[in-house]
């Protein structure tokens, strides 16, 4: 499979296939992520601020990746944030990640987001190369997290 054969879709409603795909893919992104069942996934997909993308293998039709684009309207304008990008480890390097990121950037452009941000684990070198090829640049800032 290559990126030309990858089909990216926006998830408009949940199906058992999508729940299964998240169950398979999320542990590859985060060992601490709780399993997603239909109800929490439905809340994510139905939120007007979220657009969930999936990538399908052109040959098998299997879901091989996912990305969530979050839109935030704040005083400085509409901003977009890419979260939870994961491509199945067996299909990495085939263009699925590139196709997901491009679909998210295209959507952000259509809704006129001023910026699109993301964070990436420092050890994910291949992901960094993907983001840089897509036009992202490193921003001199710090990310802070509070966990209640």
TrEMBL record:
Q: Which Gene3D superfamilies match?
A: 3.40.630.30
What Pfam families does this protein's entry cite? Acetyltransf_1 (PF00583)
Q: Keywords of this protein's UniProt record, alphabetized?
A: Acyltransferase, Transferase
Superkingdom classification of source: Bacteria
What molecular function terms (GO) are annotated for this protein? acyltransferase activity, transferring groups other than amino-acyl groups
InterPro entries (alphabetical):
Acyl_CoA_acyltransferase (IPR016181), Bact_Acetyltransf (IPR050832), GNAT_dom (IPR000182)
* Keyword field contains Transport: no
Domain N-acetyltransferase, by residue range, is 9-148
- Name the chain's protein: GNAT family N-acetyltransferase
Q: Which organism is it from?
A: Bordetella genomosp. 11
What lineage does the source organism belong to?
A: Bacteria, Pseudomonadati, Pseudomonadota, Betaproteobacteria, Burkholderiales
């Amino acid at each position: 499979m290559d990126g030309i054969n990858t089909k990216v879709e926006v998830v408009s409603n949940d199906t058992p296939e999508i729940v299964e795909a998240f169950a398979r893919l999320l542990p590859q992104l985060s060992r601490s992520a709780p399993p997603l069942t239909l109800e929490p996934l439905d809340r994510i997909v139905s939120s007007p601020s979220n657009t969930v993308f999936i990538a399908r293998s052109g040959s098998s039709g299997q879901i091989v990746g996912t990305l969530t684009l979050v839109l935030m309207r704040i005083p400085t304008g509409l901003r977009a944030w890419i979260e939870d990008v994961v491509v199945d480890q067996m299909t990495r390097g085939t263009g699925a990640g590139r196709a997901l990121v491009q679909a998210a950037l295209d959507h952000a452009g259509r809704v006129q987001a001023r910026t699109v941000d993301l964070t990436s684990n420092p050890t994910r070198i291949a992901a960094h190369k993907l983001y840089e090829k897509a036009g992202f640049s490193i921003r001199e800032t710090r990310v802070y997290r509070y966990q209640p």
